[in-house]
Amino acid sequence: MIEEQATVIECEGKYVWVETQRQSSCGHCSVKNGCGTQVLSKVLGNKVARVRCLNVQEKKTGQSFCQLKSGDRVVIGLQESALLSGSLLIYFLPLMAMILCGGLAVFAAGIWWPEGTDLLSAIASFTGLFLGLYLARNYSQNKYSPQYEPVIIKKLPVSEWPLKQNLLA
Known about the structure:
Number of helices: 5
Helix content: 40-55%
Strand content: 15-25%
Strand order of the largest sheet: 3-2-1-4-5
Largest sheet: 5 strands, antiparallel
Radius of gyration: 23 Å
Number of domains: 2
Number of strands: 5
């Protein structure tokens, strides 16, 4: 499970809105000055992401939902398989549709219109890309599964909060 610390913003029934600090560069590499990720991090900065999470921690304890309050620090998690299958859906499907449509256009143009092979393959490739994006969007909206939803794993005690958060409180 991929885990990240977050701060609770608000509660809505069995869901909790949290904010996480997106980190663009890891800072662990010895090639810090030549790293493109670090340059992007300096330009774009670390942004805050707002995420809706399922509050399964409350189910485990048998308490009612939303025992959390605004400002609480929690650990949220997402299954690796959900991240992998979601990535395949939004990246691999449009790419494969683009390649397949472009290849079919080259094959068809070779038979019926050999002079227009490049034009047909470009048009078909873009059409396949947009078709793949459309299919990925519709599939992800129609086949909603709770496995793709981040969940709250645990509430952090105040002693485990980062020092910066304790100073702000």
